[in-house]
Design goal:
mainly alpha; 57% helix; 442 residues; 22 helices
């Protein structure tokens, strides 16, 4: 399976290049070097962990299939009808695993890595969680019991995962009736958004029909804000992987009631015992917080890119030969490569030449606003003085913003974010905003 993943890398690279090009042409900044390398590093680590945990990835499934699913009719699962049935069964199981990943704290601790990016692009799709198979393998055992062969299961798993990649983009807007059936970019932007109305919605991998059946569907109706409600504020991949686990362990260790020590792990994310919440208060959630974008320069960015490319090449060599290695060499290779990827994260947060040019706009060390936050809060070119933000104008005028928009100022502000000329009309501008994503998670 690792070799199959390697064969798809050129196609993924082409897709990312095309999205970057479209993003640049439209004037939307959906890629940052630090965020992109952090996402790709998590994707590589997930493959390294998978190579070291074959028992959890496919081994237990195979054992259950041989014990309980051997009486099924294997030729059926090799037909297109059988594969279609397997995809539907897999997606149903995926829905419940994904839902558990958002509604049970210990599952969220494993899944949170996928949501930590404060951008939404194809590289975010590759930001896969490493610990999810440790907890998630029981959810797929119904397919083994039903007799779906391990080879077919692996084929369907890869197919569903690759289908989901295209849904991680801000460059594709609403798709009409397809949004009511399939997981589309619009539906998945909602899933990644931290807006109150969007939390814990649209879990389906291929179909959103499951969300409609079980009451978790929500269409995209307002600009999204991406990331998590407790941002990791780091590009270190290990810190990102253990962030929520550390918080859960701290709360379980300090709470006085034994029942709460278990509830910390089994309650929804964000739940905390009263005594712990009073002792270790957390800051309130701010939807319009600034994006984590530490200052850097061309030297650190170049070093990070070179080290990442070298690490990625090492991962490719390792994964290609992993099937022929024993467990000890696999663990050694994984430890070495993870250390290199941690070095990439360190460089992304380290300015090795403080006196040199900054790699981000704005004052040194300033964190840049997220996409939706920038739409609401960033300064716009408005006459005269041009210093107020749209949020400040709306707050000062209240319901009087409608005449302001009629006068063209509101439209100008909106179009500035959407890269639409002010004369292009309000409907087109709003379509661009709602066709763009935001940022999400707990």
């Amino acid at each position: 399976m690792e070799q199959a993943v390697i064969w798809t890398i050129p196609f993924l690279a082409l897709a990312v290049f095309l999205e970057m090009t479209v993003s640049r042409v439209r004037g939307r900044k959906t890629y940052r070097i630090n965020d992109t390398l952090a996402s790709l590093s998590q994707g590589l680590i997930s493959q390294l962990v998978a190579a070291c945990t074959p028992l959890l990835q496919i081994g237990i499934y195979t054992l259950v299939f041989k014990a309980l699913g051997h009486r099924a009719h294997p030729p059926f699962w090799r037909t297109w009808q059988g594969i279609a049935v397997a995809v539907i069964m897999f997606d149903f199981c995926e829905y419940w695993l994904h839902r558990a990943g958002h509604e049970i704290a210990v599952f969220w601790a494993a899944h949170v890595v996928h949501h930590q990016s404060e951008e939404l692009n194809l590289c975010t799709a590759l930001r896969q969680e490493s610990f999810n198979p440790v907890l998630g393998w029981p959810f797929y055992l119904p397919l083994a019991i039903a007799g779906v062969p391990p080879v077919t299961f692996g084929f369907v798993l890869l197919g569903v995962q690759y289908y989901q990649i295209w849904a991680h983009t801000e460059q594709i807007g609403r798709l009409g009736w397809l949004d009511g059936i399939l997981t589309t970019p619009s539906n998945h932007r909602v899933h990644h958004a931290v807006n109150d109305r969007y939390l814990d919605r649209n879990y389906g991998g291929v179909f959103v029909l499951w969300d409609r059946m079980f009451g978790t569907y929500m269409p995209e109706t307002e600009p999204c804000v991406f990331g998590t409600r407790s941002p990791v504020r780091s590009f270190n991949p290990l810190r990102a992987m253990v962030q929520v686990y550390a918080h859960l362990w701290r709360d379980a260790r300090h709470t006085r009631r034994w029942g709460d020590k278990w509830r910390v792990f089994l309650k929804p994310p964000g739940w905390r015992p009263d005594d712990v919440a009073q002792r270790f208060p957390q800051p309130p959630f701010d939807l319009y917080r600034e994006t984590y974008d530490p200052p850097s320069n061309s030297t650190t960015r170049a070093l990070a890119v070179v080290l990442f490319l070298a690490s990625a090449a090492g991962c490719g060599v390792f994964l290609w030969h992993a099937d022929d290695m024993g467990m000890a060499p696999r663990i050694l290779w994984t430890a070495l490569l993870v250390a290199c990827l941690c070095g990439v994260g360190w460089l992304l947060e380290k300015d090795v030449n403080p006196g040199g040019p900054r790699g981000v706009s704005g004052a040194p060390g300033r964190r840049q606003p997220s996409t939706a936050a920038a739409w609401m809060r960033s300064p716009r070119r408005i006459p005269p003085g041009g210093t107020k933000t749209y949020g400040e104008i709306a707050e000062g005028l209240g319901n009087k913003t409608r005449p302001l928009r009629r006068a063209g100022i509101g439209r100008q502000l909106l179009c500035t974010h959407c890269a639409v000329p002010p004369g292009a009309g309000r409907q087109r501008a709003v379509g661009r905003v709602f066709g763009a994503g935001g940022q999400r998670s707990r």
